[in-house]
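Response to reviewer comment R2.3. The reviewers asked that we include at least one raw input/output pair. We reproduce the pair for Carboxypeptidase regulatory-like domain-containing protein here without editing.
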Amino acid sequence: MKHIFTLLLLVVTTTATAQIKFEGVVKDSIGNPLEFAHVVAINQESKILESYAVTNDAGRYKLNIGKNTTYKISVSYIGFKTAEETIEVKETDLSKDFVLTLDNALDEVELTYEMPVTIKGDTIVYNADSFKTGTERKLGDVLRNLPGVEINTDGQIEVEGKVVTKVMVEGKDFFDGDSKIATENIPADAVDKVQVLKNHSEVGQLGGVTNNQDNIAINIKLKEGKKNFWFGTVTAGGGQSTSQNLYLVQPKLFYYSPKYSINTIGDLNNIGEIAFSRRDYFNFSGGFNNPSQQSGTNINFGSNGLNFANLTNDRAKDINSKFGAANFSYSPNKALDLGGFAIFSNSRIKLQENRSIDYIDTEVNTPPGEDIFDNNKQASDLGMLKLTAKYKPNSNNQLDYEILGRLSHEKQRNITFSTVLGSITQNEETNPYSVYQDINYYYTADESNIFAFQAQHKLQDEDPFYNALLGNDPSNNDDIPRKHRRSL
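Raw output as returned:
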C-alpha cells in the first residue's frame, strides 16, 4: 500500500508542477478595473480552450496554463473591443495587464459574440460549445472540460469542490436528479448551456431562511433542435471469446417539450459492464427531501444489512447484466408538476479464485501445502418506482408529495474447497421490499412567518436468509480440479 500511495503522490506532483500562473488586471482606457471581463487561453497547437477566468471586482484574473506552450489570449467585455494576443509560455509564471477600448461600431452592427461563461448572482452559465473539442460523447465529457467542474471516482459531479445534489434537464428532474445517470447517458451534442445553481432550494419560500450554501444543482439547457423532437443514441456490438458469444446493446431515447418529457435508457451486455450496481441502487433516492434541514427525522434507507459481495467487480469469470429505466415529467398547467421514474436491473456474476499456499515451517503431521478453490455465484434483481407531484397555485402555498417503492431479490452462493479443511458451502438470500411516502406543505404568511408541515410514512419488510454447509456436495464440484475431488 505504501508503494501505491507514493506512486500516486508522484503523479499528482508532476501534474501540478507542469502548470504555471498567468495573471494580471483588465482595465478600461482611463484605468478603471473591469469586473466580469472574460479571459480565455486557447492552445495554439491543439486549438483547445485550456483555461478560463472571469475578473473580480478589482479587475484581476488568474489562469493556470501549461509550460513551454503557445497560447492565444482573448479578453472580452460587452461594449468593448476584444483584445487578443499570442504569448509563448516558458518555465516561469507570467503577469500581464490588458487595456480595453470602447467599441464605437456597436451602433452600426449587431453584436453576436456569446460569452463562454456568464455569472448572474448565484448562477453560473457555461456555453457548452465554447468548451467542446469535438470528441465528447456524453454529458460527463462536456462537464470535464468546464472550469471548476469535476466528476469524482463515484460518478458524482463536483463544482468548486462541492458535490452537486441535483441534475435537471430543461428545469425538470432527470431520474430524480441522479448525477451518475445524467453524465453517462445524456448525449453531448444535445447540450447547449450548463447552468450551475448555487444555494439551490427545493422550496422557494425557504430560500431566504435556510442554509443552502452546500446545495448546488445543475440544469442542462438543450439545443433548439433537440426540443419537441425525439433524439438519442443506440450502441450495439458483438464478438466472440474462447468460451461464449459476446454482445452489447445500449438504446437511449429522449423527448423534451415545454409540457412533458420522456427518457428511456437500456443496457444489455455480457462483457462485464454493470450499468446500475447495488451501490447505485441503495444510494439512489436514499432518503426523502427535507428542505428545511433543521427539523424532522433523518431516515437512512441505504442498506439491507447483508454482506453481499460488491457486484461492480468487472474482474470476474462471467458477468451478464440487463438494465432498463424510464423517466417522465408532465405539467398540465403552471401550478401542477407531475413526474416519476421506473428502474429495473438484473445481474448474474460468477467469480473464481484459486490459491496455493506452501508452509515453510511445518510441524509434525501438518501438510506441507494447501490448495484453496473459491467459487462464488451472485444473482441480483432490483426494481424501483417513484412518483412525485408538486402543486404551487401561488407564491404563498406549495404542496409536495412523493411515493417510492423498492423490490429486490438477491442471492449469493459461495463454495470453498480446501485440500486441508474440506468443503464449505455458504448461501445468502434476501427478498426485501419497501414503500416510502412523503408529504410536505409550506405556507408563507409574510416575510417573517413561514409555516411548514412534513410527514413521512415507511413500510418495510426484510427476510435475510443465511445457511452454511460443511462437507461434501458433489453437485458443486465442477470448478474444482479432478485430482482433488476424491479428497472430499
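The helical segments are 2-17, 139-144, 179-185, 278-283, 482-485. DSSP finds five helices and 28 strands in the chain. Further pairs are available on request from the corresponding author.
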